[in-house]
Amino acid sequence: MDINLYIGAHNTSTNAIISILENNDALLSEQRIHFASSKVAIQHLAAAQKALVDGTRLETVQQKFISAMTNGKNIDRLVIISPNILGTATRPFGKEVFYPRTSGLMQQLQNMFQGLNMKLFFSVRNPSDFIPLCYSESLLGASFGSFENFTQEVELTNLRWSSLLHRLQGKQDENHVTIWRHEDYPSMWRDVIQLLTGVKNNQMLKGSSAVPTENLSLNGARLFNRYVEEHPPRTKEDFANMKAAFLQKFPETSEPVKDVYWDAEVIQTLTDNYDDDWYYIERMEGIRTIQPRIFA
């Protein structure tokens, strides 16, 4: 049994991937591939981990987990889409690292999937875009505060995706990890989906390269935080209407972050670090990168 886990990062191409998998459910089923999304996965992973701690036999736990995730279907490959396995979108970093709980969580997954073929899939994004989007998601989840407070305990220029990948690989580099850049996803989405699912012919996939806009720009997030402070919503409906209005007027864009209140030098440093880090990631042992195809 193959277990393919897409575990992030948040605010990359998760929802685009889920949409494509849903549109191609029949094709995947024909090839004995089944996918499950975050909420279902988190619930059943937690139950499986508890069962192991309580002393239930590993084989029993695995069988029950797979049956619950697949509704009892007879499959060869289970694809789980769940960035929340590593942490929350509203706080995906510690003082100097992305997803600080990764090492312990990887050990739990290794214990859970012993004897099965577990592969990890991950998408990275320029931190100068990723961090503001996480702030925006925090606000949209009703956790309010300034962007400065959101980042004040983080050494932003020390954050490296490669550090996270080393922890994903495990102590002996035993975990198989495939990675790509979010910025490249639209030009190679068929390759990403094929490697993630194992579908035989990626030209049979139905879908598009579009990545849905579901968040606020940094400027929009700042204005939203200020507006909510000045006009506190009285009901959930009020808050939902506020969110909808701001999302329509201040959506995230594919353009580089420009914010008069965030030091341009920090933004440039984060971007330069990201480029240098990707150069290092491309040369890491045991890491498979998905790159755009170059046609002569």
Question: What does this entry look like structurally?
Answer:
The protein is an alpha/beta fold. The protein has one domain: Rossmann fold (3-Layer(aba) Sandwich), CATH 3.40.50. Helices cover 47% and strands 10% of the residues. It has a six-stranded parallel beta sheet, sandwiched between helices. Helix 3 (38-53) packs antiparallel against helix 4 (58-70) and helix 6 runs parallel beside helix 10. The longest helix has 18 residues, at 264-281.
Provide the fold topology.
Layout: E1 2-6, H1 14-23, H2 25-30, E2 33-36, H3 38-53, H4 58-70, E3 77-81, H5 102-112, E4 117-124, H6 127-140, H7 147-151, H8 161-169, E5 176-181, H9 189-197, H10 218-230, H11 236-249, H12 264-281, E6 287-289
Parallel strand pairs: 1-3, 1-4, 2-3, 4-5, 5-6
Helix pairs in contact: 3-4, 6-10, 10-11
Low-confidence stretches: none
Domain count: 1
Residues in helix, %: 40-55%
Assembly form of the protein: single chain
Structural class: alpha/beta
Taken as a percent bin, the fraction of beta residues is: 5-15%
Q: How many helices?
A: 12
Question: Briefly, what CATH class?
Answer: Alpha Beta
- State the end-to-end distance: 39 Å
- Major sheet size, sense and barrel closure: 6 strands, parallel
Which value, in Å, is the CA radius of gyration? 20 Å
Whole-number average pLDDT?
92
**Count of beta strands:** 6
Shape: globular
Sheet with most strands: strand arrangement? 2-3-1-4-5-6
Which H/E pattern describes the elements? EHHEHHEHEHHHEHHHHE
CATH second-level architecture: 3-Layer(aba) Sandwich
The CATH topology label is Rossmann fold
